[in-house]
Amino acid sequence: MEKIDIKSWARRAQYENFVGYTNPVFSVTVRLDVTKLVSFCKEKGKSFFATFLYIMSESMNEIPEWRMRIKDDEVVIFDKVHPSFVVLKDDDELATCMSEAISDYETFHDKTKEMIAKAKSEKSGAFESVKRVDRIFVSTLQWIDFTSMSNPYNFADKEQTSIPRVTWGKYVLKGERYEMAFDVAGHHALVDGVHSARLINKIQEKIDDIENLK
Question: For residue 124, what are the CA distances in angstroms to 18, 102, 120, 121, 131?
Fold first, then answer.
């Protein structure tokens, strides 16, 4: 983790403007073409969720702005940020899985599946509040094809508010292509629309190049 010198930071003006907003968060919802990803997972017998989670995590970690957080009223940038995702258990209770951003796809995929299975098998509630800020909050709405969505925030907590929220929905067949709604929300003091676009484009590029997934 490295501290950002706000006084000499290129985006100091944007940061100082947005950090004091009552609601400093913005989100972008797009439709991704996941045709190649669906085919890859079916052919290889892989989990769609775990595979897309890996692609999203890798993409976000490749963009410095998405690794920035507000911590102790300072801006910091982490070497890596890690997905923290929600699992819906059979009784509709929610459980939180604290994952790690492992660069090897096969290892990440298998560990994610193991974490999901463990979370579903636990009898007691395992929904935890994430204290670390080097996280990406992840949730899915795999039952519906949404066009927009919003996340709950405690805007009085700058640290938690600075953690990006990522959500995706049910992939649906449109003609001969599969599409999926994808939403990313970020703190405007740290990221702008251009950074959302870079993330979304990078995710799409990795899906289109799925044959070279490592």
Answer: 40, 28, 10, 9, 20
- The domain segmentation of the chain, as residue ranges, is 2-20+28-212
82-88/177-187 β-pairing: unpaired
Predicted confidence (pLDDT) at residue 3 exceeds the cutoff of 60:
yes
Strand partners, 139: 167
Q: Rounded to whole angstroms, how far apart are CA atoms 32 and 52? A: 11
d(CA 89, CA 15): 39
The DSSP 8-state label assigned to residue 167 in this structure reads E
Task: Express each pLDDT in 131-142 by its tens digit.
Answer: 789 999 999 999
- How much is the pTM? 0.95
What is the three-state SS of 59-91? Answer: HHHCCHHHHEEEECCEEEECCCCEEEEEEECCC
Q: Which of 127, 125, 44, 55 is nearest to 85 (CA)?
A: 127
Main-chain dihedrals φ then ψ at residue 184, nearest 5 degrees: -130, 135
Phi and psi at residue 58, in whole multiples of 5°?
A: -60, -45
Task: Identify the CATH number of the domain defined by range 2-20+28-212.
Answer: 3.30.559.10
Other C-beta atoms lying within 10 Å of the C-beta of residue 147: 10
Helix (H/G/I), strand (E/B), else coil: 189: coil
